[in-house]
Design goal:
With 268 residues, the chain is an alpha/beta fold. Helices cover 19% and strands 30% of the residues. The protein has 5 helices and 15 strands.
């Protein structure tokens, strides 16, 4: 049994190689013949979003308006699926040389997403661990794998089902307003969150920065930050997230279900 699956893809933002992420995610979406994609840099086309079967986002400080948040919330509560990546939960305000995360600008959005980015430490390798090894979204993923990515320090809302997590007890990178994160609580990396009859899957991995992505601070960033995009485990998580959002594979109706995704070897 087949039928078209409509995806809406929002990809935009600051201080990241949005072009790279856009191309890679579109390639993954294109692996599924039934998925057809409309995409934009904003959430303005609410008719198209709410007519879609699922929403996928890779954004950094690209925030829907209050009216857009409320419309997406209603669509999600009615049974929509949202696969949110990396900085979708970020609001960045630069004041007095510091990056601030205002909590009052998009409360509906952050409630839907289940977290709000606040800061990250310097980009160094860190270990991601699988919390629910039997869950199909992470089954067969190495129980511990290392990434060189932004480790998200965030306000976390109650009600998230954490599938991947990491640990950090230290200071954020200079330039963020909130520097002190010396607590022992785990930091979610991937989680599911119910919203009415709908659901959000959030994956914080996916940092990528190229030479020309730090304007206006510098016209030529001295290196490329590849982030988790060099990890086979990250691409597997993206593929499974797309299948989850589209209702394919493990999440398809019984009569359409294909064999489960094979286990993958350790990524390093």
């Amino acid at each position: 049994m087949s039928g078209r699956i409509n995806a809406y893809f929002v990809c935009a933002g600051k201080y990241h190689d949005i072009d790279f992420a856009r191309i890679e995610i579109l390639k993954l979406l294109n692996e599924k013949e039934r998925i057809r994609v409309r995409m934009a840099e904003t959430y303005h086309d609410l008719d198209a979003i709410t007519a879609s079967d699922f929403l996928i986002t890779y954004t950094v400080d690209a925030i829907p308006t209050t009216a857009e948040q409320e419309a997406i919330s209603a669509w999600l509560a009615a049974g929509g699926k949202w696969f949110a990546l990396h900085g979708t939960n970020s609001i960045l305000r630069i004041e007095d040389g510091l990056c601030k995360a205002p909590r009052d600008e998009a409360p509906v959005l952050m409630h839907m997403l289940g977290s709000q980015f606040v800061a990250h430490p310097p980009i160094i390798p860190y270990t991601v661990e699988v919390v629910e090894p039997d869950h199909p979204l992470v089954r067969g993923i190495p129980p511990h794998f290392e990434v060189l990515d932004e480790l998200y320090l965030a306000d976390i809302h109650k009600g998230n089902r954490v599938l991947l997590q990491t640990h950090f007890n230290g200071m954020a990178e200079d330039g963020f307003e909130e520097l002190d994160w010396r607590t022992d609580e785990p930091r979610p990396v991937m989680y599911l969150r119910d919203h009415g009859a709908g659901e959000v899957l959030y994956l914080t991995l996916g940092h990528r920065r190229g030479r020309y992505d730090m304007e206006p601070f510098t016209p030529d960033y001295p290196k490329i930050d590849p982030g988790a995009w060099i990890q086979p485990a990250f691409y597997e998580l993206l593929r499974r997230g797309i299948e989850w959002a589209a209702g394919l594979g493990q999440w398809a109706p019984d009569e359409q279900r294909q064999p489960e995704t094979a286990e993958i070897p350790p990524s390093n």
